[in-house]
UniProtKB/TrEMBL annotation:
Species this chain originates from: Nicotiana tabacum (Common tobacco)
One Gene Ontology MF term: FMN adenylyltransferase activity
Family annotation (SUPFAM superfamilies): Adenine nucleotide alpha hydrolases-like
The gene coding this protein: LOC107811999
PANTHER family referenced in this protein's UniProt entry, alphabetically: FAD SYNTHASE-LIKE (PTHR23293:SF13), FAD SYNTHETASE-RELATED FMN ADENYLYLTRANSFERASE (PTHR23293)
Gene3D superfamilies the UniProt entry points to: HUPs
Protein's name according to its UniProt entry: FAD synthase
């Protein structure tokens, strides 16, 4: 996978460490839960987009390890295996919706579009699907990150699922560096 190769070859040791830690969290989640039991909450924002690419690399590496292929082959344009959910909002900028749909087409993402508020949408999603964990692009400093760890159960009063936060310890700088420096690999 190109992004993994680009990160391994880059000179930024701190970015490599952040990347490796995020990939570890992703691979750990994929070891704990089946692909059918996880989802990605994608909103088209920068953090969410960074997470999408990390998750693509993590899935590829996880699959390569399971198939003993060493992780050196290209992903071949396969459909992204993780259920991806998008909470579409009438108040979102049209550019956000356009970018989200373009990303889905570009990266072969089968996206579930939810047109309910977040809590009601999650309730419906979890009732209809065997999802037990959701990857989120939450970073320390985000209002929703308070008290969270890389694996954190949902809050009381919310539908039960495990929040998986691979970029929780990333700063804006690391997300921007990955996104800006390695877009050719993404």
């Amino acid at each position: 996978m190109e992004i993994d190769k680009a990160i391994r070859e880059c000179d930024d040791g701190r970015l490599k460490t952040k990347y490796n830690n995020a990939i570890y969290v992703i691979r750990r989640a994929l070891a704990l839960y089946s692909v059918q039991e996880v989802a990605l909450s994608f909103n088209g924002g920068k953090d969410s987009t960074v997470l999408l690419h990390l998750l693509r690399a993590g899935c590829f590496l996880h699959e390569a390890e399971e198939n003993n292929s060493g992780g050196d082959a290209a992903d071949g344009g396969k459909t992204f295996p993780i259920r991806t959910i998008y909470f579409e909002s009438q108040s979102a900028f049209p550019e956000i919706n356009s970018f989200t749909y373009e990303a889905a087409a570009t990266y072969n993402i089968q996206m579930d579009i939810i047109r309910l508020d977040f809590k009601s949408g999650l309730e419906a999603l979890l009732k209809a699907n065997p999802i037990r964990a959701i990857f989120l692009g939450v970073r320390i400093g985000d209002p929703t990150a308070v008290g969270q760890e890389q694996f954190s159960p949902s809050s009381p009063g919310w539908p039960p699922f495990m929040r998986v936060n691979p970029i929780l310890d990333w700063s804006y700088r690391f997300g921007y560096t990955l996104y800006a420096t390695h877009t050719h690999a993404i």
